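[User] Could I get a sequence and structure tokens?

[Assistant]
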Amino acid sequence: MEKSLLENKKAKVFCYSGTGNSLVSAKMIADELDANVIFITEELSESCQHIEAEVCVIVFPVYAYAMPKTMKRWIKNSSFSVEYMAVIGTIGSKHGGALSEAIRLLKRRKCKTHYTMGLKCVENFVHMFKLPNEEKIKALCENQKKLTSKIIEDIKEKRQNSRCLLRPESFFVSFVYRRAARLIASRYKVLNSCNGCGICYRVCPPKAISIENDAAKIHSKKCDGCQGCMQLCPQKAIKFARIHPESKHFYKHPDITVADLFKRETVTIADEENLETDKTIENGLVTPNFTFETEHSPTHSTLSEETKTLRKSMFNAVIEMRSQEVDEE
């Protein structure tokens, strides 16, 4: 995490995002507040931080009427000196008690929540719900932008609202989901087609994936169930239960690229010139640096030649793609 992002005392925008819904709205809000988007990740949740800002906005997806586990840990491990706190939950249907839960957690950290809002997006929990058709997805994404614009107006005017903290039906649903979370996470399987490119590792908020022996390994105890690994895998090498990787049950917000969702700052790939080189992608978020390993690095020798070549070509393509987008902007 770049220190300068946390030092901005005027406005801070924090975001948890697996497939882009929350990130789209967070970027819109950040642009209007002249701020950067700071991803809520396992690394951030493990560090004790003091968040100081005039305006602080938290954007996250609602999972079974509750907040993602990683985000809860981040709030519990942080302290806040905020004049105006806004909490936005992106939802497919209802936010249930997720926003109330955020208010309670922030209150325990002696931080008052001034504004909360549920934001309707594409329902992308494909484990349980059917993904809408392309036309419906486009309409929902446009509506999300309109709703986000209204939220931005409210935040800039520092409007306040209140919310009932007693949500017994939501407590029951989220309680059952939490108890079944590890079982659900264990249904993710990595197929033999995995080439160890590392994209799943870089997009996973709770860092529940590692790359071992040229393949992804999912650590179900840490999984939040964001589905980013399955939805964004270029090889379709991660499946869930009976959902076949070649099916159409996959979603990424159309206004977001995979590179936009990268949360790990470095990825190691082979450099044929045996030099360590940093390359930067300007994507409006935490700037990721691609560190190229030398052939003498410990992990270099464990990679197959095919994987080394594939990794290098893939990430060079991403760098070129993002550079072109920046030039166009």
